[in-house]
Amino acid sequence: MPGVRGAVCGIAGTILILLIAISLHEEPAELPRMAKDLKTLQEDYRQLNKSCFILGASGETGKELLKQIVESQLFSKVTVIGRRKINFEDEAYKDVKQEVVDFEKLEEHSAAFQEHDVGFCCLGTTKAKSGEAGFIRVDHDYVLKSAQLAKAGGCQHFNLESSKGANKGSSFLYLRVKGEVEAEVEELGFDRFSIFRPAFLMCDREEYRPTEWMTRKMMTPMAYFFPTVLTVPITTLVKAMLNNAVLQSDKKVDLLENKAIHALGKMEEEKKC
Q1: Rounded to an integer, what distance in angstroms lies between the CA atom of residue 92 and that of residue 75?
Q2: Does the pTM exceed 0.85?
Q3: Which residue ranges form the domains of the chain, and what is each CATH number?
Q4: Catalytic center residues
């Protein structure tokens, strides 16, 4: 329908303009110097026998994150925490533990968050899918409560997938909620808190979202000519999360914008060149 296509194009165009405006204020990526090569850092990390949990493993980022964690064997124990059990057909996932929880009653599932050294939070929905109240409940309330339980359960390093442009003072609901939850999780005082602010995520979603589909079509040529400005492949984001973990930064809070995510995610590729 012409009217629907026009509306979708209008929304996609607005998103594009917003991301361009935000990109103009992004600081250059600065990565810590490595005393060892990445493979050595990964092996050293494996020797620590750390355990981790993933929130949002059924989503696009969480799914890729779980895949790369299983393949890399960086963690001695991996737990998926979600509202329903995921059926894994691949034998590689046989040791992945699953905890099914009711996010509306998370306090009753505190045991699921105990005895994990590292947490990865990839929870998220959209206002279009869940409504304003539903979006706030998932992207703020569920995230914050999960972080609180993780902290109480002994988690030392909490990783949060946020969004480019997140700002608690923003007039845009999406960016404001993302900024608010960043600030509130930081106040919990994790030994290490890593915030990832990716730009538009490039992936082929199983769930069809018209606005994202149209935006992705518009972004594809931009991603080719300006790869670190407005987009990031989900595989690169996930590699950045794992590379950041093994770097063992002394900083209490890591704020990783889109350019830093690209740089971190491509560390291994650059070493091979």
Answers
A1: 14
A2: no
A3: 2-272 (3.40.50.720)
A4: 174, 178
